[in-house]
Amino acid sequence: MRKSNHPFRLMVITIFVILIGLLQAVYAQGDRNGNGEGGGVDLVLTKQADKTAARVGSRIIFTIKLKNTGLSKTDDVTVSDLLPSGFSFISSSSPQAYNPVTGEWDADDLRGGDSISLQLVALVNALTPASNHTNVAFIADKKNNDPQPLNDTARVKITVYDFSVTSSTICAQSAAALTASAINVVNPVFRWYADQGLSQLVFTGANFSTSKLETDQIYYVTVSGDNIPVDANPLVSTVRVLPSPVAPQVSVLQPTCSTASGSITVTAPLLAGLLYSVDGISFTNTSGVFSGLSAGTYNVYIKSPNGCVGASTHVVLNTQPLPPSAPSLSVVQPTCSNGAGKITVSSPRNAGYRFSIDGVDFSDSTGIFTNLLPG
């Protein structure tokens, strides 16, 4: 008979079981420490923003994502993301876990393959000398030994810019001069639209001269550049149009043979606060009466209390007329049979002349005076 070797087999099996237990314990310890072969914690941090270029005064949303690509569960992971000076904190998607003062985010424990995200909403501050800002997030905890630390930091660069437009107040039937300017925009292109929907483009450029306007007008202005896309939130440029007075109605007194000067009198409109001018420069006259004017061409204007000047009325004052020469006369004396005489002006007999034999009544246009008594 062969001698039994059961005790030897039992010893071998016992040693094998002990070795397996020891290996499992070592593996488990390594797994907890994050450095076990084929297991452990491997954290990956990523970060993005809802825009790469942001205008001063606008809001921007940063999204931080933490993922455990290892097999073991994390233990108290802390991520640091303190907003740079170019942004002011508004809110977070996890106010209990994120401290905006320190920038620390206490992330939940993650099992292998799980991920968690945090959103930070920030206001874009006024431009500083550093107009491009980089927001950096990194894993700051010390409890999880990450075998790949290169993916423990994430960053996103934001181009901060600003632009402005002017508005204007003009008088009716005038054109407005409007301008746009930008900061930290490379080769800016400004587009002016007549509607908020940005479908009616009226001008492209920084200096916009409108057509002559009768009513108020609003323009919506966008900017784009080599380093920023088209801004979808336009600025508003407003043109306020003030009413202008109507052209004046006037009466004119021309110079005469005895008076070298003429006069212009505004007959309408005559309202309180209106100022009148016959040269478009001096608006000190409040009555609308201009006397002692020499011969020449005048344009009569009215300025309203809002400072607007209306259309003018054109007036020409003639030169002083020369007195006619003494008339040549033919006289028919009374006779024995006819007691009345007759005076006839033989010259000058120009069109428009009026004749008188007493220097008072100039109603005669024929120059013939009959039935005159001796005198």
Give a nutshell description of this structure.
With 375 residues, this protein is mainly β.
Can you give a write-up of this model?
It is a single chain. This protein has about 375 residues and is mainly β. The chain contains 1 helix and 26 strands. The chain has one helix spanning about 5-35, and strands spanning about 45-50, 55, 60-70, 75-80, 85-90, 100, 105, 115-125, 130-140, 155-165, 170, 175-185, 190-195, 200-205, 205-210, 215-225, 235-240, 250-255, 260-270, 275, 290-295, 295-305, 315, 330, 340-345, 370. The strands form 6 sheets. Strands 2, 4, 6, 7, 9, 10, 12 and 15 form an 8-stranded mixed beta sheet that branches. The chain is rod-shaped. The termini are far apart.
Instruction: Decide which structural class fits the backbone.
Output: mainly beta
The whole-number mean of residue pLDDT values reads: 88
Low-confidence stretches: 19-38
H and E order: HEEEEEEEEEEEEEEEEEEEEEEEEEE
Instruction: Summarize the main sheet.
Output: 8 strands, mixed
Number of separate helices: 1
